[in-house]
Amino acid sequence: MDRKEHVNRRVILHLDMNCFFASVEQAHNPDLKGLALAVAGDPKARRGILVTCSYEARAFGVYTTMTVGEAKRLCPQLVLIPPDFEKYRQASQAVFDILRTYTELVEPVSIDEAYIDITAIGGLEDALGIAKDMQERILRELDLPCSIGIAPNKFLAKTASDMRKPMGITILRKREVHKVLWPLSVIEMHGIGKSSAEKLAQAKIQTIGDLATADDLKMKMTLGKRGLRLKERANGEDHRIVDPEASAERKSVGSSTTLAIDETELEPCLAVFQKLAEKVASRLEAKQLAGTVISIQIRTAAWRNQSRSKTVLNPLYRSNEIYTEAAQLFRLHWDGEPIRLLGITVSNVIPFEELHEQLSFDTFERHDKEVSMQKLVSRMNDRFGPGTIHKGKQ
């Protein structure tokens, strides 16, 4: 059997935890069950952003990325809880541990979702039974709900898991793509955001069907090589394998440097962090990754090593945001001792393709412009050499 034939016979599950952070909070505190609940970056600030919300809250029109003030106006009884990332990481690990009791072919792609290749343990014949058993075990053992998509490849499995929430199981076959997906607007397709949808609309591509049947040259001119890949997805094609090592390989991206002298002044240290942030951002962009945990490394003149880290709500990959977080950590934790080495690491990374950044509407336009600028800087550095061009501080 050649690789392509094997790929076409694969059975892939995509497991997506439902309202994960809110569900974990409800599992830890049963008194929260049935309540309109939201996890917010800063529950006390009316402009704080909701990280996630329960289905009870969604019934009032509350949604993720809404500000606390907006959510409270829609649902005055909304219960707000600050995020507890350590609690969520432990719950995530427990979910993945359950999945690995079925097969080692489990690829976590974020804290609350994973792909599972069940081809060798039952295939399509037993797929529904396996998915139901996984879903019931996770609910019974961890008190956490999830939805599962079943398909011959990653893209269709991911699409299927979004079709029925909460606690849904959906099978999506390649032959059903033209009937199920093609009539939908391109913005509903996994991997297409607002900016890409606007570019496609300018090219008279409105539906997933339009995308699937578009001319290759037109797609390349509209979205570059990514356009051709999206066209493949729209036709139900996706040859990516489930790789258990992928998450380990992309676990972290970092950079460090030994200083020319033992530094005792703040500003020179911050200048070093600026350069390190640019290097880390460049490496993340090259690997098409973003991460939610940032760490700084400090080695003193006395060779005392220390590391300080922070978990952020929105995945980091832009140099200015990496620098801002690193500088904040440094100011908070540096005790003035002479410094020999500094470093920055971004970890808990995920591919851009799986990126679900929490953005409020008033920051979306700024975000799009910064992404475009970052890509331009990256292209110029590829052409003229690393470090030739970089973004200035604001």
From TrEMBL:
It is an enzyme of class 2 (transferase). Keywords: Cytoplasm, DNA damage, DNA repair, DNA replication, DNA-binding, DNA-directed DNA polymerase, Magnesium, Metal-binding, Mutator protein, Nucleotidyltransferase, Transferase. It catalyses: DNA(n) + a 2'-deoxyribonucleoside 5'-triphosphate = DNA(n+1) + diphosphate. Residues 12-193 form the UmuC domain. The active site is at 113. HAMAP family: DNApol_IV. PANTHER family: DNA POLYMERASE KAPPA (PTHR11076:SF33), DNA REPAIR POLYMERASE UMUC / TRANSFERASE FAMILY MEMBER (PTHR11076). Poorly processive, error-prone DNA polymerase involved in untargeted mutagenesis. Copies undamaged DNA at stalled replication forks, which arise in vivo from mismatched or misaligned primer ends. These misaligned primers can be extended by PolIV. Exhibits no 3'-5' exonuclease (proofreading) activity. May be involved in translesional synthesis, in conjunction with the beta clamp from PolIII. This is DNA polymerase IV. It comes from Sporosarcina jeotgali.
